[in-house]
Amino acid sequence: MATTVTLPDGTVLPALGVGTWNMGDSTTRREEEIASLRYAIDHGVQVVDTAEMYGNGRSEILVGEAIAPMRKRVFLVSKVLPTNATAKAVAQSCRRSLKHLGTDWLDLYLLHWRGQVPLAETVEAFRTLQHEGLIRHWGVSNFDTDDMQDLQRCSGVGECAVNQVLYSLEHRGVEYDLLAADQQRQVVTMAYSPIGQGGALLANPALGQVAARHATSQGKATPAQVALAWVLRQPNMLAIPKAGTVEHMRLNLAAGELVLTEQDLAELDAAFAPPVRKEALAMI
Fold first, then answer.
1. Are 52 and 21 in contact (CB under 8 A)?
2. Cα(55)–Cα(60) distance, rounded to whole angstroms?
């Protein structure tokens, strides 16, 4: 299992990060969510991912509060909406996100998905933000193979650091061509929702059968840990599952201890078939 990923400029990051979609929306869960993020950082997680869209900035505000005492240990990621992808609006969105997050810089700024604004305009806006020191790296999210080809036409080698996409056992379409193409370009793939959005994935009997053969330092392996370990086995892959409690975060971190066998992988392939043809990019 890959334990780190390397960005085009040589920056090395742990392959397990944390996502924050739907975090910051509940006052009753706020303290627990902050504790979970701080626990993750204290136990080696660096990448914390958020977006201006998440709760209309509430997620960014929560993340900012959580990481304030440990900002220099965090590789902070946020995303700009495609409706804000013009040169003027990107600059405004970035500064608004920085204010929400209580920081002077983003380590990575992503275009959340492709919209109507020409990619060349957005790329130039990202370059300007880099020149001003407001962002250190930039990338994209929910870009398929053809989108990445279009991006390549208006950006230099190594400029786009990351492509964040939906990837899990139940969404394997990117394996057909996108993962290999991004790796060839030295673009790190960041997997969001790697253990699914509900109970359907984790209720699959195959995950339970594989989990029953494994254990971690936290005890018997769980289906969620198997699903996460399966994503993390990929080279060039950075996974960002959400964990709103310290206990959930502890289990996610322990998933990195699992080494899936050939038998495990064969059983999971039988239950969740890999793609045999090009599929439309899945998004949520």
1. no
2. 9
